[in-house]
Amino acid sequence: MSIWSELIPEFSFEQVFVEPWTEFLDPFIWIFLMGFFVTAACGFLGTFIVWRRMALVGDAISHSVLPGLVIAFLVSQSRDTLPMFLGAVGAGVLTTGLIEVIHQKSRIKTDAALGIVFTTLFAIGVVLVSLYGENVDLDTDCVLYGELEHVTLEPLSSVFGLFEAPGSVIRMGVVSLLVVGLVILFYRPLVVSSFDPGLARSMGMNPAAMHHALMSLLAIVVVSSFEAVGAVLVIAMLIFPGTTASLLSDRLPVILGITLVIAFLGALLGMHFALWLDISTAGAISTVIFGMFLLAWVFAPRRGLLWQVFR
User: In this structure, are residues 83 and 76 in contact, taking their beta carbons and an 8 Å threshold?
Assistant: First the structure.
């Protein structure tokens, strides 16, 4: 018992589930909203990425933003949000473009092209950091795992005079609304081009343009989520919500709705889980979402393991 008490802190329902929403609402509401916005945006867009069998493109983008961040800092001599964001998005868009060019202009398959591009760009970023390391303040823990809790340290910004919120939460909320809005607006061409590009062309659609637009939007989402959840955990948030929802339904609108529910529950339970164990919130959210995937994998109707065993 003593070993378990050292490994696992004592659980107090009031401290873990009640006090964050009563005595400490101000910091914890921003942590929850940031976690929800990141997971919702990644999961909503990740559903289409997974169906296109390009799940690891997000991994490539998250690793390839490093040279963009360094170059943006060297050009602007500032760590302000705008130059950093533009540099990272530029690197992300360049990553998707290079993957597509290498795949289309050679006999190299997509997975190999992906590995070539993201390792090369990440290596260039490491070289730049080595050369200009004295001028670049880079937190490796933030790069790999994110610092979602740091959102509580940001100054509050006014939103049209209606309310105040940390700048990163506002930015991620806008990105989440942009993702949901664009998916709804271009729902039909996005679905058709994802499942059958030939049919999309015969219907007068442009699947290539839709692909590039989707990759550009993916770069924006990954870069926006980068500071909160890091280069590693953003992949979990891209893959798990959509794949979990796909185990529970065949209809795309229902899958997208379930994805948002998973994002909400993952952010909420992950925040409380991190508070109890005093661990990374981003890691806790990813772990909770993985737990939801396991439950769906085992108990989902028609696709769950138990259903297949007893069918």
Answer: yes
